[in-house]
Design a protein that fits this description.
The structure holds 3 protein chains of 3 kinds. Chain A is α/β, with parallel strands linked by helices. Chain A contains 6 helices and 13 strands. In chain A, the strands form 2 sheets. A 9-stranded mixed beta sheet of chain A has the order 9-8-7-10-6-1-4-5-11. Chain A is globular, with a radius of gyration of 21 Å. The termini of chain A are far apart. Chain B is an alpha/beta fold. Chain B has 2 domains: 178 residues, 3-Layer(aba) Sandwich (Rossmann fold), CATH 3.40.50; 117 residues, Rossmann fold, CATH 3.40.50.1220. Chain B has 9 helices and 15 strands. In chain B, helix 3 packs across helix 4 and helix 5 packs parallel to helix 9. By secondary structure, chain C is an alpha+beta fold. Among the domains of chain C are: 173 residues, FAD/NAD(P)-binding domain (3-Layer(bba) Sandwich), CATH 3.50.50.60; 172 residues, D-Amino Acid Oxidase, Chain A, domain 2; 88 residues, Alpha-Beta Plaits; 102 residues, Beta Barrel (Elongation Factor Tu (Ef-tu), domain 3). Chain C is built from 21 helices and 40 strands. In chain C, strand 10 and strand 11 form a beta hairpin. Classes of the chains: A alpha/beta, B alpha/beta, C alpha+beta. Chains A and B meet through helix 3, helix 4, strand 7, strand 8 and strand 9 of A and helix 3, helix 4, strand 5, strand 6 and strand 7 of B.
């Protein structure tokens, strides 16, 4: 079974997120880049399926040449080939990203399963997987925390508020997955060295951006708490229970 | 017309999030001098009586046998066809997983953008044909993004707490219209084949108190005292990403950007420093009690109350005091 | 939060290992009003202390660093924060095998237990290591890992318990106010603090903090990459943070150490990645910490390959993942040494920066002692923050040298090795002539000084000078040096000495001021040239220099180029407050040409009408003579043991002076000679001591053989200690040793241990080891000369000893105990 994972290059931020002077983007001067946790799990799943079935695990991103770093990270986790679709902007919008993926797929091998993270860790538009599925008319399930497959069908466990839904779909199919799908591996040294030398296939992408355009980013106005320190160590227990009682939690 | 895709809970009652969406749709429609249409899947049930109070003039019921097990993608396809027919000025939905997915599919089929997790929608000036502006949450809500939404039909999902529903001018009546989309059973699709209810008991998302542990708990065994406290105060246990990565807790317990977003009355953060990725998961709590050895940890400075100390000194003492006061 | 004080005696900025150690030792030494501030939270404020690899290898070629490390290890041990694991430096190349021999010599010199072991023995100690790429190894059993964060906490606790310390974390320093050149006040975001002293222990942020007071701390933050790979079952099974020796894989410039279940791999091999202190992110904005920058994987890839060569057995496993990878920041300085002591720009503003974890506690003690007593126990001169010339403090210079120096961290550094970046900052007016003569330039304090001249190449054959057969001995050396030496002794040589630092001292208080700083009697007639040691309060050497009385209230101080900046700081700090003394640095105004040799008088007489006869211009006098049409301050003295003068001229007249002397010298066979002659061969034959080699803070004039016949009545810095030393027997005597004829094919270069004939280490009663302080050829004596301090029971002429050099031991003989020269012992040639 051949699986493709779509990933996005996102900044690895600290507690405070700095913005560029024009507020159009996150100031990444001091930051590294990564792929989100959902996508790490997707890569892990793809690698495991490929290992188990003797198939291939591909990784694809839509973005500038810098995003090769994230493709190589996925390669070092065990993905065996990588594709970057060029984008006219650093942070492509969901319509553009979906169009880029849809446009690239005919040039690539026919994947049985295409995985997305539920949402990117930065913009969080949470829609590219469904857009791609809609464009291709393929089955798609989101919120996936479990994937089982027999080679012709896929069973997808979707987590919802009140439990778990199991969906089945014929292949080829698409899924948007959540962290918790598995515990992704760390890259190995050998994996890194292999990834460094692996070719990255670059495909041209769409040049027209979508209708959702970022004007500026802002910090959420945070109501700064004036923290009341109830005490230190075990001695604070009565004060803590007073608070619980106040909230009606002491029965 | 402003369309609102609405959801109902297990008892067929409009969800709070959908009520918010209807309120926002009504505001928007008032601005634009338009009506509000609601879109739901299945039978009308008690909806019309509720919707009339919320200023909804039309209820579109999506009806097709494939919708029964088709999941959000199928809903999205039906919605897309309804939109194509109705040509609304905007389509809104709550930013739930299912609604977002249906909206994503529909927006793709209609060929327009979708702004997810919006906190504000501002129609363009004049006749409303100019690009609109939205404010949406990014990075889990730590950042807000002002964006242009440039489309003939504006698709947006609304984050929770966007608008508190208020009494609004009731519509004269709700016209209920069934809409039967053209869905081809031969087209490959995902089918819901099984539904497993969560084991009874409190869920993290709905618990009034969440007792959550991070690096400072130190081990899987260390959560016993958190479980005990949660049991005593009628809460659920959560954890940070550190705990999941170390295998101390299942991912289902994880609070944060890539786990569960909680909004309890009280969030007790035990040994959690409060990295951004965690903070976005608990920032909607009404109150936070932080227990941490580091008085300068971000979680402490953002908390309502704090206890400076080791989790395994503080919590046992709290448990003991609780038992003493409740007489047992 | 603790209330924030509005005054303190000393404000220590930075709560890393260094700042914590400083406050601890200040409290221990009796300071009671100490404030420690840090912008970050405790216990890990986010600096380099929080992410360092924390291992300690005690052996360094530098004695000062070795002493600081040894002291730090004692302190870490006493705090219960040191775990001994042993360490192995491995060699993959023959050159590294030789370097390990040299490390072995340093270990023996400084008295640290170590041994050379085989690759098989390495594998015996580290079973998962593949020894096949290795040729040899250097095993140090005492190598350890330490916990600097915990050590820092304990040090703060002790200082607090003594009632001496207030700690203010999350406190940002916004400004440092000065008044009349002294610190007065530290302004923070929590309030202003009046204070007398400020210690900048801010690691990579130090330049930025010092700049708030108008001072420079010349370092640059630079990246050092580290990764953690794991989990590895063999490591996890030990259940310990570290159970196996640390491997330093020296040739690929990297190390591997156990860190719990992981193997940590660090690299000094990648391209230099320098940052700016202003560009380091805040704690909140950094993903990990301000000094753990995003890992740049491409830079580390070669190190992964090298690591696999030794550790494929545990690293090449599918479950051993790269769990942590950072570009950690550390501090680099222009010469690789720390930046310690009071800044020359601002009195009361102290630097404790560019310090490794392994030296932190020792540096804390050193700084506290220095602030308390005016001098620390360990001689800090090579680490003195005041050691830099102005251009060496610039950002461009610091970055150039740091970039060049980064890959030297694990490099094989020849003792004479020269820097190649940012050269040519300071040139004497003679430079064009020297360049035309094919000078090989060595650098001191930025000055380009000819070490030898290729134009003298024919002299090598003519004078029968032999080359050195061993490449290491001959590196950064030329037989031309010896040829120039012999030519000088045969006829006459001219030597560029413009790198001398020179100060003009004038005013009604000038005499008293110099009397206070110099041990020699300075109240001599106008025209006298006075050689004098300058001591610290403990009687150890601070400097040695020449004072010339030019007038009743006018003196010239001439000191070595490498010591100029430190000496200027010392002289400046001791200026009387009443304004009765004016001190001017005239280094740039004056160029100096040495003229020495049996024909020196003939040459000088040919170009001046002034009386330069022995009677008319006696030894140890100076006065202005006219050379051609140039007024020149001529000083009759010699550091090479020949008749002659230092000729000091205005810089702009320098080229004329050179040409005049060179032309006049032709009939007398004049040659240009380099610093190889002046600083090594000629001075060693004469037994002259050199600051920083023989002369240091650990030794005084009595032991160095430089005590003066009389003791002047005027008080001076170090007088009590000096007086006491004169009254007793010295614990060590500076001796000149000759390499025995059987060993003449090898050439020790300094730093080697001196051993008894039985191969035992030699230490004096104060525990100070005997090692070679200087070494070089004695062409006129036809031997190789070494200097070393020896305890009385070895300091007897004729005693046979051994010197260990690159793994071999060579017989040497004590040729002279004390200052009497081996060459021309009566100084007849200087008359």
């Amino acid at each position: 079974m051949d699986v493709l994972v779509c990933v996005k290059r996102v900044p690895a931020v600290g507690t405070e997120i700095l913005l560029t002077p024009d507020a159009a983007a996150i100031d990444t001067r001091h930051l590294g880049f990564t792929i989100g946790p959902h996508e790490e799990c997707a890569v892990e799943k793809a690698v495991r399926i490929a290992e188990r079935t003797g198939g291939a695990a591909g990784v694809l991103t839509v973005g500038p040449p810098e995003a090769d770093e994230q493709l190589r990270y996925a390669l070092s986790m065990g993905a065996d080939h990588a594709v970057r679709v060029e984008a006219p902007v650093a942070d492509p919008d969901p319509e553009l990203t979906a169009a880029a993926v849809v446009g690239a797929l005919p040039d690539l091998r026919p994947y049985d399963l295409v995985l997305f993270g539920e949402a990117s860790a930065d913009a969080g538009h949470a829609q590219v997987g469904f857009r791609v599925a809609a464009a291709l008319g393929r089955p798609v399930v989101g919120g996936v925390k479990g994937i089982g497959t027999d080679g012709s069908r896929v069973r997808l466990e979707r987590h919802v508020d009140d439990g778990v839904e199991v969906h089945e779909a014929p292949l080829p199919a698409i899924a948007a997955v959540l962290e918790g799908l598995n515990l992704p591996r760390y890259p190995t040294i050998k994996g890194r060295l292999r990834a460094k030398k692996a070719p990255i296939r670059v495909l041209p992408g769409p040049v027209v951006t979508g209708g959702l355009r970022t004007l500026r980013l802002r910090h959420r106005p945070e109501a700064r708490a004036q923290t009341v320190v109830l005490g230190r160590g075990a001695a604070a227990a009565p004060a803590v229970v007073d608070v619980l009682a106040e909230l009606g939690r002491v029965r | 017309m402003v369309l609102a895709l609405i959801e109902r809970d297990g008892e067929g009652v409009l969800t709070a999030a959908s009520a918010d969406v209807l309120a926002a749709a009504r505001d928007l429609a008032d601005d634009l001098g338009a009506g509000v249409g609601a879109v739901a899947v299945g039978d009308a049930g008690d909806l019309p009586d509720d919707l009339v109070k919320r200023g909804v003039s039309t209820l579109h019921l999506l009806r097709h046998e494939l919708l029964a097990d088709g999941g959000p993608a199928t809903v999205g396809e039906a919605l897309a066809q309804l939109v194509a027919r109705e040509q609304p000025v905007a389509v809104l939905a709550a930013a739930t997983d299912a609604a977002t997915e249906a909206m994503a599919w529909a927006a793709a089929r209609v060929g327009v953008p979708l702004a997810t997790a919006c906190t504000a929608i501002r129609p363009g000036p004049g006749d409303g044909d100019r690009p609109w502006e939205v404010t949406r949450e990014r990075a889990g809500g730590i950042l807000l993004e002002d964006a242009v939404l440039d489309a003939p039909i504006r698709f947006a999902t609304l984050g929770t707490g966007t608008r508190t529903p208020t009494e609004t001018a009731a519509a004269a009546e709700v016209t209920v219209r069934a809409f039967v989309p053209e869905l081809d059973a031969a087209v490959p699709r995902a089918r819901l084949v099984e539904r497993r209810a969560r084991a009874s008991g409190m869920t993290l998302a709905t618990a009034p108190v969440v007792v959550s542990g991070g690096r400072g708990v130190g081990s899987a065994e260390g959560y016993a005292v958190l479980e005990e406290l949660a049991g005593l105060v009628g809460g659920a246990v959560g954890c940070s990403r550190v705990a999941t990565n170390n295998g101390w807790r299942p991912h289902a317990d994880q609070v944060g950007l890539t786990g569960t977003r909680v909004s309890p009355d009280l969030y007790i953060a035990c040994g959690i420093s409060g990295a951004t990725q965690h903070w976005v998961g608990c920032m909607n709590a009404r109150a936070i009690l932080a227990v941490n050895t580091d008085p300068e940890a971000p979680m402490v400075s953002r908390a309502t109350w704090a206890v400076i100390g080791d989790v395994h000194e503080v919590l046992p003492a709290v448990v003991e005091e609780l038992r003493r006061r409740s007489g047992g | 939060m603790t209330p924030f004080p509005d005054r303190a005696q000393v404000v220590v900025i930075g709560a890393g290992i260094v700042g914590n150690a400083v406050v601890h030792h200040l409290a221990r030494l009796g300071w009671r009003d100490v404030l420690l501030v840090d912008k970050g939270p405790l216990p890990d404020p986010g600096g380099s202390t929080g992410h360092a690899s924390n291992f300690v290898f005690p052996v360094d070629h530098s004695r000062e660093i070795t002493l600081l490390t040894a002291d730090s290890m004692r302190q870490y041990t006493e705090l219960g924060t040191l775990t001994t694991c042993g360490g192995i430096e491995v060699a993959r190349t023959p050159e590294r095998v030789q370097e390990l021999d040299r490390r072995m010599s340093s270990a023996r010199a400084w008295g640290i237990d170590a041994e050379l072991i085989t690759p098989a023995e390495v594998a015996g100690k580290v079973p998962f290591l593949d020894p096949s790429p290795l040729l040899g190894a250097f095993w140090t059993p005492s190598v350890a890992v330490v916990d600097p964060l915990r050590a820092g906490e304990l040090m703060r606790e002790r200082a607090s318990a003594a009632g001496a310390l207030t700690v203010a974390a999350l406190t940002e320093v916004l400004a440092i106010d000065t008044q009349d050149g002294r610190v007065r006040r530290v302004r923070t975001d929590r309030g202003d603090v009046e204070c007398e002293y400020v210690v900048v222990a801010c690691g990579v942020w130090s330049p930025r903090i010092a700049a708030l007071a108008g001072a420079t701390i010349p370092l640059t933050p630079a990246v050092h990459q580290m990764i953690d790979v794991g989990p590895i079952a063999e490591l996890a099974a030990t259940g310990r943070e570290i159970a196996f020796p640390i491997i330093r894989d020296m040739d690929p410039f990297m190390y591997e150490r156990q860190s719990g279940a992981d193997l940590e791999i660090g690299s000094y091999a990648h391209r230099p990645i320098l940052c700016d202190p202003d560009e380091i992110p805040s704690n909140a904005a950094a993903a990990l910490s301000p000094t753990q920058l995003p890992f740049t994987a491409d830079d580390f890839d070669p190190q992964m390959e090298a690591a696999l060569e030794l550790f494929a057995g545990i690293l090449d496993r599918p479950d051993a993942g790269i769990r942590h990878a950072i570009n950690g920041l550390l501090s680099l300085t222009p010469d690789g040494h720390p930046l310690l002591g009071e800044t020359p720009e601002v009195a009361g503003l102290w630097s404790a920066a560019a310090v490794w974890i392994k030296e932190g506690p020792g540096v804390g003690r050193l700084i506290a002692e220095w602030m308390t007593a005016g001098v620390p126990e360990i001689d800090p001169h090579a680490a003195d923050v005041a050691r830099f010339a102005p251009h060496e403090r610039t950002r461009a210079h610091v970055r150039a040298r740091a970039a060049e120096g980064y890959n030297k961290t694990y490099g094989i550094i020849h003792p004479r090795e020269q820097w190649s970046s940012d050269r040519g900052a300071r040139r004497s007016p003679f430079f064009p002539r020297e360049e035309a003569l094919g000078a090989e330039f060595f650098e001191v304090a930025g000055w380009e000084r000819p070490q030898w001249y290729r134009s003298n190449e024919p002299l090598v054959a003519e004078l029968g000078v032999e080359d050195r057969p061993h490449e290491w001995d001959a590196r950064w050396w030329s037989p031309i040096i010896n040829a120039e030496h012999l030519a000088m002794r045969r006829s006459v040589a001219m030597i560029d000495l413009s790198a001398f630092a020179q100060f003009d001292v004038r005013g009604p208080g000038a005499l008293a001021y110099l009397q206070h700083l110099c041990i020699a009697q300075v109240d001599r007639p106008v025209g006298r040239v006075i050689y004098t040691p300058v001591l610290g309060p403990d009687g150890g050497f601070r400097s040695d220099l020449t004072v010339v009385r030019l007038g009743d209230q006018h003196f010239r101080v001439v000191t070595g180029g490498s010591d100029g900046a430190r000496d200027l700081h010392w002289f400046t700090r001791h200026l009387p407050a009443d304004g009765s003394v004016a001190l001017a640095d005239v280094t740039s105004a004056v160029c100096t040409l040495g003229l020495w040799g049996p024909r020196a008088r003939d040459v000088l007489a040919a170009v001046t009408d002034d009386d330069v006869s022995h009677e008319g211009f006696p030894f140890a006098t100076g006065r202005t003579v006219t050379v051609g049409s140039i007024p020149v301050l001529a000083l009759r003295l010699s550091y090479v043991g020949e008749l002659g003068w230092e000729l000091h001229a205005p810089t702009e007249c320098g080229l004329r002076l050179w040409d005049t002397i060179a032309e006049a010298g032709v009939p007398h066979g004049i040659v240009p000679a380099g610093i190889g002659v002046y600083g090594t061969t000629a001075r060693l034959e004469k037994g002259y001591r050199l600051m920083g080699h023989e002369l240091d803070g650990e030794h005084g004039p009595v032991e160095a053989g430089l005590a003066l016949p009389g003791l002047k009545s005027a008080d001076f810095v170090g007088k009590a200690a000096y007086t006491k030393a004169r009254e007793g027997e010295p614990e060590a005597t500076l001796c000149t040793l000759t390499l025995d004829a059987s060993a003449h094919r090898r050439h020790p270069q300094g730093g080697e241990p001196v051993l008894t004939a039985d191969g035992e280490r030699i230490t004096d009663r104060r525990g100070r080891p005997s090692y070679v302080t200087s070494a070089g050829a004695g062409p006129s004596l036809r031997t190789h000369l070494l200097m070393a301090y020896l305890p009385p029971w070895h300091a007897a002429e004729g005693t046979g000893l051994l010197v260990e050099y690159l793994g071999e031991r060579y017989p040497v003989t004590v040729a002279r105990a004390g200052r009497t020269p081996l060459f021309d012992p009566d100084d007849a040639r200087m008359r």
